[in-house]
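tl;dr need the bound structure. longer version: we got a ligand (magnesium ion) that a collaborator sent over and nobodys looked at where it sits. i said id run it. heres the input, straight from their email, havent touched it
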Amino acid sequence: MNNNNLLKKGRRMGDLKYMILSVISVLTFLLIWQLLVIFGVLSTRTIAAPTQVLVTFFEKFYSTAPDGATIFTNIAVSLKVSLTGFFSAIIIGTPLGMLMGWYKPLDRFIRPLFEIIRPIPPIAWIPLTILWVGIGLGAKAMIIFFSAFVPCVINSYTGIKLTSQVHVSVAKTFGASNFKIFRTVGVPSSMPMAFAGIRIALGNSWGTLVAAELLAANAGLGYMIMMGRQFVRPDVIILGMLTIGILGFIFTWIFTKIENVVVRWRTL
Amino acid sequence: MSMEQKAGTRLIVKDVSKTFYQKKIEPHHVVDKVSLEVKDNEFLVLLGPGHCGKTVLLNIVSGLMPPDEGSVYLDGEKITKPNPKIGMVFQKLGLMPWKTVIENVEIGPKLSGINVKTRRERAEYFIDLVGLKGFENSYPHQLSGGMKQRVGIARAYTNDPEILIMDEPFGQLDAQTRYNMQNEISRISEHEKRTIIFVTNNIEEALYLGDRIILFTECPARVKEIYDIDLKRPRDMIDPEFLRLRKMISNNTDLAL
Ligand SMILES: Nc1ncnc2c1ncn2[C@@H]1O[C@H](COP(=O)(O)OP(=O)(O)O)[C@@H](O)[C@H]1O
Ligand SMILES: [Mg+2]
């Protein structure tokens, strides 16, 4: 075995050592939590033991208590809401930001409206959207849209504003029209910034989802958590929280993969 | 509007001036009544000190920037906007980091809607000519300074311009690479005859490459002197005649270039 391989092996063993440490940390935490509940230090009325959460998780595969839906239905409802809002924000917000950054008249026209809407927290839209479209999918998707729309616009706007003047000149000397330069130079060079915006939008929309569902819903993970509180089921609450956390983690992971493919040139 | 011109003249720059006005600072007069002619298929070198307004003049010639006064004529037609007949190798290069070498090189024909097959063939030909075969699918940041410069040159050639402007293409390179690239450009321009306007602040480079040298003053740029260089090619930097011309030009400049 040559030196390089030895080094690599050493590094891998180092990685393994740290991984074991991380696992021990989590296990210790869970163990202490479990023991505190078993020995009655923490009341089962306020917190559920990890094993209980796991049991509830499997129960919720088919049981609809206490919120009226299984865990999968709740996940599906939440996903549908958040993805609807999130994707409409990307589809509308990103091109809008880029066009505003490129075409000054459009910028001047939309900017005032945008600046008025921008500082309003997405949650402040909840009452109005309930009046408009009730508490169904539409209302929550709309709230999520507001939370995700703003970073999409701002980042793609800033990104395209930073387009290198030399790149524009290059395209001009080849006789390209302004719109063609927008498409072939402006859009691709603003992609890394646009993606950073979409990443913020992703976090926002998942965060806002729960808030939206806590306030106005009849199904979904946020709704499940709220019902858990009403029926004093800390196990259901914790299960809801963990599911939201894990799904958020998976989304970010998928997103990073996509980002690495689309703007690969930036990281290569 | 058109303009009378002598046979064999491609481009005429007539009394071009440019001043930049900015808030709170004195107007910056950069190009001052520059007139010059570019002949068909010649290798013309514009030689001038740094920040004397060479790039600004080229931007005006290529139609990227309007002059305050004067005009530029290509084959008798006044230039008002960029024209694919005039190609440019930019001082700041401007390779697009999201495109591979071949995608960068083929961008000219791509923007004019030429089909993939034709433009790929052209791009491959010039990538080969500048010595980048095998790097078609690399990204710009994976290349050295000299290689990036070659991409910029191949990109300009691939659009098949009749007049090729090169703005200090070797300014950022180390001495050895610079010397190699001077040989290369000499070889490439023999192989692919074009009218070339080459900008530099280096007297040796100017003498090594140019059929004619136009010497500029310090800012604002004005034509100071025009030299016809009749040395045989390939040129020899230690040939007595080369050295004599070098001394002569050097004595005529205010700065040590
Ligand atoms: N767009 C611009 N606005 C204001 N000043 C400029 C602009 N472009 C160039 N200048 C100024 O004009 C002078 C000449 O620049 P340039 O033509 O780039 O010189 P060089 O001869 O080195 O190519 C510089 O002092 C530069 O700061
Ligand atoms: Mg310059």
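gonna send this back to them w/ a short note. The domain at 1-81+197-257 of chain B is CATH 3.40.50.300 (Rossmann fold).
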